What we know:
With 255 residues, the chain is of the alpha/beta class. The chain has one domain (4-250): P-loop containing nucleotide triphosphate hydrolases (Rossmann fold, 3-Layer(aba) Sandwich), CATH 3.40.50.300. The protein has 10 helices and 10 strands. It has helices at residues 42-49, 72-76, 95-102, 111-116, 119-138, 154-166, 184-200, 212-218, 236-240, 243-250, and strands at 4-13, 16-26, 31-35, 57-62, 65-66, 80-82, 172-176, 204-208, 221-226, 229-234. It has a 6-stranded mixed beta sheet, with helices on both faces. It has a 4-stranded antiparallel beta sheet with strand order 2-1-4-5, with helices on one face. It is globular.
Amino acid sequence: MSLLEVKGLTRRFGGLIAVNDFNIELGEHELVALIGPNGAGKTTVFNLISGFYQPSEGSVTIKGKDTKGLRPHQVTSLGVARTFQGIRLWGEMNVLDNIRVSQHSNLGYSLLDSFLRTKRYCKREKQIEDTAWELLEAMDLKDYAFEVPRNLPYGLQRRVEIARAMSLKPSLLLLDEPAAGLNSSDVEGLIKLVRWIYDTYPVTIWMIEHQMKVVMSLCTRIKVVDFGTTIADGSPHEIQANPAVIKAYLGDDTI
């Protein structure tokens, strides 16, 4: 059984077709990229998969379950976590609390448990705390645990956002332009971080990314879309040599 199966995915906004007949199948422990020019429909695909949009046509199946009608938190409960093109951390919470609170989508105890501070409540809260500290340690964020994210450099904010997503222990991690806004040093750090996550955890990583250095360094498979339609799917070598991809990015004169 596939981890993710997308068939005929289409999304219309009025007369605009943002995504047209998109298909992909991801298995366990893959590292795949989705690329294309600005406005190609990449983030719309992620929004459809994570439940922020509902498809006009087609289907999304995660671990054999059709996600039609599911809200984002329900898709998350199937093992999907994501980051966003623009960083969306909780600005008034420190780094530790950002990672702690994200885990409360799957508490495992009731409101009554929390009022009475039952054994179940205490056990789960300790697990949440331990997971947060483990991730902070592993991702070199421990020294910033009590800092408010907005006071951190942009590269560290990205790292916090990825740590928050990983705190959900996802089977599928969606990274939407993780290198956006990073300087060259931070990009190198991001490549190492994503590689470490992939090597350490049983997770499939699917990323949208414009920086080809990141894509070519990490991914064994790349899917390319343009104007909402898939134009190529293959290995990095195949994608680099594909005339349709070159045309989409650089124009007819280059070819």
